[in-house]
Amino acid sequence: MRLWFSIIVLLLPVSILAQLSAPGAKSVRLTSYPSSPAVRDQIFFYCNALGTEKGTLTAQRPGGTGTYNFSWYKWNDGSGSFSTPVTTAIAVTSSTIDKLDWGGYRVKIDSSGITVKTLTGWIFFDQPPLAGAKLANPLKNCYYVALDGDTSSTVRVFYYKDPANGATLRIYNKISFRWSSDPTSFIPAPDVNLDPIIRNFPEKPIVNIYHLPMEDVTYKLEVNSLGCRSESSFLYESIHVKADAKLDPLTGEAPLEVSFTDQSVRGAKYVWNFGDGTKSELADPEIHTYYKTGLYYPKLEITSALGCVDSVHLDSIYVEPSKLDIPNTFTPNGDTWNDFFKVESKSLRFVSMEIFSQSGLKVYGFSGEGESLQNWQGWDGKINNTSVEARPGIYYYIIRAFGWDDVKYDSRKYRGFVYLYR
Q1: 414 and 398 in contact (C-beta within 8 Å)?
Q2: Averaged pLDDT, 19-46
Q3: Quick one: pLDDT band at residue 65, thresholds 50, 70, 90?
């Protein structure tokens, strides 16, 4: 009794390592025997697409060293047991049987006449499932793409036996699927929703997130059963539109000239709303000038040749408010640094400057707007635009200005003294 107990203890850990595999099988499930719920044998599924597929089973030795005897049997419906001999392999470390048909197989692994492990496996042959992919809506819609998928298993049920009593048991085929596209584009829940609908977000009118394909795309539905795989695909020619544009610059002082470059997809008709009360229907509008300071929100709406409409709020444009700062010194010595007395300004529509000596003699004057103001460099330290250089010292200025935001710069704050150094 003690000797047998020792043998069992020695064989137990290595017997656990024995395993059964089925090279070429596509998936594996486990049995569920009502008579023995704890027993979970493997069920191997092959794809028999051509009708000539055969199965293969390989049993590995329990582990450790040494060789074992492998005796294979097939399930016999007549006897209700694994009683049909298949083959026996003597003194080997593993054993493989091939060219197997549907059915149950059992291998007994023994050493010195003692069975150390019994492995059971079932082989089933599946057929390729149905896979159908098409467009659900026969007439293309501007605002969505509805995909229509069709799947079903060719072999719906597989049958095996309960070894304890020969009762017929069943396992149902399992279908999984996944939509994909080439080139890659958005498909919602591609492995959950068999009939996905692709829309932009938010929906009509379209604003921000573009999910609809903007180029021709091939949609493919791949369907997998327990043993086989099928696929179906179709080419979708896009009709969808996308309104978009590049703006440059987005900020600056008035008058701010902004270029609007169209980057839309399938635009045929355009309506540009510049955000300042003006519009254009040109595909490539001329440079637009913003005169008033403030924040602008331009918008673009396009219509395709098929009547599909899209609109988008473009980047906001900021025209800086007017500003005027007056320096108190300058050094017109020809070193290219601080050679001019000029106000530091933004968004000024009009500027006038008068400069007087301490004796009250006017030595410089400027008044201008538009292009003359843009080209104005300031006082170069010469008397009344001649070649005569004003002497170093203190000079009195009077500055008046008017901003594009209607701010007036005409008070004591803009009258004072500037120091000329050489």
Answers
A1: yes
A2: 97
A3: confident
